[in-house]
Amino acid sequence: FYKNRNFCNYLFHSLVQEKSPYLRQGSFAIYSLGNFMSSNLGEIKVLLSYLAKETDDNVKFTILLSIGFIFCSRFKLIEEILNQFINHYNPFIRLGFCFALTLSSIGLKCIEKQIKILQKLSKDKVDFISQGACLCLGLLHFFSPSNQGIKKTVKLLKSLINGVYESRMTRFGSIIGLSIIEVKKEKQFSIKKKIFRNPEILFLFLQYWIWIPNIC
Questions:
Q1: Which of 52, 75, 101, 113 is least crowded, fewest Cβ atoms below 10 Å from its Cβ?
Q2: How is 129-190 classified by DSSP, letter by letter?
Q3: From the CB of residue 181, how many other CB atoms can be counted at a distance below 10 Å?
Q4: Cβ count within 10 A of residue 188
């Protein structure tokens, strides 16, 4: 479905009305790939309208993830909209926010603001949010052309990995996030170019939420 906008939009409107949350979740996944990097503000209005009436938490998470893919590398366009979700009461929406923030900041040189937000969320009381924030910190640094704040992030992730009272989920996310940063240190930039050409690789990687082996 990647970048096949007309077919994706047709299929999306058919599936998004389904009773099964799994099909609705799939419809947003299709929509995000079909409109990858389109940066159309009309599309975010569509997604936010569905977010407001959606009842399933995993679908809500996928809607936020879709916003990130549609506005990949276009953080400034949706910064004000994303700010509404930083302290949202629903943990699944806060998790989705982590990924929407990261995806919309891919390739940007100045990411100081985003790093601070994710560092704060890495200490969230909900373990799967702190896991996602740690993983996102790794992705954010990996795709950034600068090394801004990277030492502080590495120090934070190592402290979380070695933290006696940290949950297994948080430590797992910290290990993955730190591993991604280590790849950047090895200067394997060909991976970055491949992911920009084939964003479905990154898309599948982020489905770890459903099936952990997708990380591999």
A1: 52
A2: HHHHHHHHHHHHHHH-SS-TTHHHHHHHHHHHHH-TTS-HHHHHHHHHHHHHHHHHHTT-TH
A3: 19
A4: 11
Question: What is the tens place of the pLDDT at every residue in 115-140?
Answer: 999 999 999 999 999 999 999 999 99
Give the CA count within 13 Å in the CB-facing half-sphere of 160.
Answer: 31
What's at 86, amino acid-wise?
I
Q: Which two tokens stand for residue 94?
A: 């806060």
Average pLDDT, the chain: 89
| Residue position matching structure tokens 């280590």 | 182
**Taking Cα atoms as reference points, which of 84, 69, 83, 2 lies closest to residue 39?**
69
Chain segment 40-84, per-residue pLDDT in tens: 888 899 999 999 999 999 999 999 999 999 999 899 999 999 999
Q: Which of 141, 142, 208 is nearest to 169 (CA)?
A: 208
Helices (H), the chain: 5-15, 21-34, 41-53, 57-70, 75-82, 91-103, 112-121, 127-143, 150-162, 168-185, 190-197, 199-205
